[in-house]
Structures are given as C-alpha cells and as structure tokens.
Amino acid sequence: MYVCSCFGITEQQVKEHADAGACTPRQIASKCKAGTDCGSCVRRIQAILGRGACPRRELVEQGNAVAALAPEPALTESLEEAA
C-alpha cells in the first residue's frame, strides 16, 4: 500500500527504513523523501513508526538514564578541588 503518493513510497519501504534505524518522520524523509512534498503522508508515517519499537530510540533512552545517574563533570571537578 502506498503511504506517499508524491514519491511512490510504500508502507513496506517505510518499515524497512524504520528497521534500519529511522525513528522519526524527518529521518524517513531523509532516506526516501516521503513527507517532503505535500505532507499529507506524515501522519501515516508517524502511525507506522509508532507501531514498532525503535532500537535507536531505546538506546537513546538508556543513554539518558545512565547520563542522569552520572555526576556532572563541573560538579565533580569542584568537589575534587574542595577536597
């Protein structure tokens, strides 16, 4: 089924780009131009991307969780200087 009529992009192609790591409509657009002409397919692309897990998004979320636990470098330096 076609998702983007302007560029002839199918749902399968969008899923393949998502499997390869494109997690947002903008990333899909950079791979195949879908959503860059009239824009009527952007919501459909968002729906397709929302159905599956995005490995890159999961890694970013894990990285953010780890970063939140790590002390800030400036704080660490000032604590070391004070000691």
UniProtKB/TrEMBL annotation:
Superkingdom of origin organism: Bacteria
GO molecular function, one term: 2 iron, 2 sulfur cluster binding
Keyword terms of this UniProt record: 2Fe-2S, Electron transport, Iron, Iron-sulfur, Metal-binding, Transport
Entry keyword annotation includes Flavoprotein: no
UniProt key word Thylakoid: no
InterPro entries: BFD-associated_ferredoxin, BFD-like_2Fe2S-bd_dom, BFD-like_2Fe2S-bd_dom_sf
Domain BFD-like [2Fe-2S]-binding residue range list: 2-50
Family listed: Belongs to the Bfd family.
PANTHER family given in the database record: BACTERIOFERRITIN-ASSOCIATED FERREDOXIN
Annotated protein name in UniProt: Bacterioferritin-associated ferredoxin
Classification lineage: Bacteria, Bacillati, Actinomycetota, Actinomycetes, Kitasatosporales
